[in-house]
């Protein structure tokens, strides 16, 4: 339906938007719009009046003002690599029946790099890999790293509070941001681009927008923390028997290596097998299969030879104690990249294998083995023949726990009824004091499910914030709350 308060018909509305962003900033052809209306997994397909691609914060503000005036909903979009449907529009907007996709991809400038302050100020459309490269060019590190870093954009990363593979040492996005620039739902611009590490002048407003998935405003720029670029890296793939051994080894490595431990990635044999099956050019680095694997990476100043020697000694001791069955230590950057390709290709390999019911969950690190054991046992009892692909950032308790049937025909029926599977997984997470969304957000996928696992008070506080900032529910409606 079209809102009664709207004064511009579709043609006039399009002309008004084009007057702001130019014809190059408007996509109206259905074929050209299609990639913006479908998520990476192909699970969600939405509808929109236009795709709008502003080139500046001022253009974003003017577009938002026009949409607010006409009661047209706005779906902010970055690289559209999310897995929960948060970056694509609904099939029909729940508030007015009219909506646009606001793509930030043209806003891709690095505004400033201050090496002495260890900060970089970037626009929301900057691809994550480009930010990493700019930091390296200044002999600095921007540590956020994930499999989609060649296409995901920093605005989307911040909107979902992305974690990635270096959280163990550097934290989530919330820990990497000093300041934000945000266009509010009425078109006003909040300039919070402060490069300060100490600012005790009231509420930390930026944290409202990080992890909000575009439901409270449009992030247009950010001041991000940089770190000294490590000169030494040591990377190893380990074969182990169980997640319990992984937790024990993590504790031992952190006791001896401290913050040198950057990444600690757990992978089941099935997860690795799918990569070997579907990703060309990959091979098993170990001589035989093991039930579970760990990808461990350390970084430090100094020489890589010294750090490799320390990791090798730790692994030899772990082998003697039975913590590890086998291990391979990368001897070159090419070997390191080959090991990381195995881990980073797991989402792509699963996509090629077929649809699965994905769960991005977290529990306290010490309870990861218990979660995997309990949830797997309950699923196998309820659904004989179920196939579980588990992998993730065990160093921060974040497991990607994916469920399907090996037989394609059985799986086609199985994935159509996700609720019983989700209930088993999420109830297990809740019993262990965990979260049903660790780093991908809620989006459309978990918007209703979260009502079972958050308290009524928490949900009401979230809704109150939403009503205060976005009283007409125009910012990414149908997502999160």
TrEMBL record:
The alphabetical list of record keywords is:
FAD, Flavoprotein, Oxidoreductase
Name residues in a coiled coil: none
A molecular function (GO) held by this record is: FAD binding
Any one Pfam family match given in the protein's UniProt record, by short name: FAD_binding_4
- InterPro entries per UniProt: FAD-bd_oxidored_4_C, FAD-bd_PCMH, FAD-bd_PCMH-like_sf, FAD-bd_PCMH_sub1, FAD-bd_PCMH_sub2, FAD-linked_Oxase-like_C, FAD-oxidored/transferase_4, Oxid_FAD_bind_N
What are the BP-aspect GO terms?
respiratory electron transport chain
* KW Flavoprotein (keyword) present: yes
Q: Which SUPFAM superfamilies match?
A: FAD-binding/transporter-associated domain-like, FAD-linked oxidases, C-terminal domain
Q: Which cofactor does it need?
A: FAD
**Ranges for domain FAD-binding PCMH-type:** 44-229
PANTHER family reported in the protein's UniProt record: BLL6224 PROTEIN, D-2-HYDROXYGLUTARATE DEHYDROGENASE, MITOCHONDRIAL
Name the family the entry cites. Belongs to the FAD-binding oxidoreductase/transferase type 4 family.
Its recorded name reads FAD-binding oxidoreductase
What organism is recorded for this protein?
Answer: Pelomicrobium methylotrophicum
